[in-house]
Design goal:
Helix content: under 10%
Distance between the termini: 40 Å
Order of helices and strands: EEEEEEEEEEE
Number of helices: 0
Structural class: mainly beta
Number of strands: 11
Shape: globular
Radius of gyration: 13 Å
Length: 123
C-alpha cells in the first residue's frame, strides 16, 4: 500500500507559477513510476507529466511542454511538479499517482492516487 499526499495548489494569476509536491508513505517509493494527472470540470482525467522509477524517462503532455517540470527525490519519497507560465486552461484538480516502475498514459493503469489539490489560474 502506498499513500500519496499532494500539496501546493492554490489560486494564481495567469503567467504565475505554482509548485506541487506529492509525498509518498512507502519506503519502496523508488520502485514506482509517478504521474501527475489533472481533471477539469466536465473533462476526462489527463496525464500532464510522468517520471519513471529511476527518473530516466520523463513524459510531458504537449499542452505543458516547456512550462512544467517533473522531478523526484527518492531519498525523500517525493515527486514535484513545477508549473510556470500558468494559463487559465491549466485550472483543474491535480492528482499524483503511482504504478510500478514504468509510467503509463492511462489513468486506469495506476494503482495508487492522492486526494488531489486544486489549481486555479485567473485571467
Amino acid at each position: 500500500q502506498v499513500q500519496l499526499v499532494e500539496s501546493g495548489g492554490g489560486l494564481v494569476q495567469a503567467g504565475g507559477s505554482l509548485r506541487l509536491s506529492c509525498a509518498a508513505s512507502r519506503r519502496t517509493f523508488s520502485n514506482y513510476a509517478m504521474g501527475w494527472f489533472r481533471q477539469a470540470p466536465g473533462k476526462e482525467r489527463e496525464l500532464v507529466a510522468a517520471i519513471s522509477w529511476t527518473g530516466g524517462n520523463i513524459y510531458y503532455a504537449d499542452s505543458v511542454k516547456g512550462r512544467f517540470t517533473i522531478s523526484r527525490d527518492n531519498a525523500k519519497n517525493t515527486v514535484t511538479l513545477q508549473m510556470n507560465s500558468l494559463k487559465p486552461e491549466d485550472t483543474a484538480v491535480y492528482y499524483c499517482a503511482a504504478r510500478p516502475y514504468r509510467y503509463d498514459l492511462r489513468p486506469q493503469e495506476y494503482d495508487y492516487w492522492g486526494q488531489g489539490t486544486q489549481v486555479t489560474v485567473s485571467s
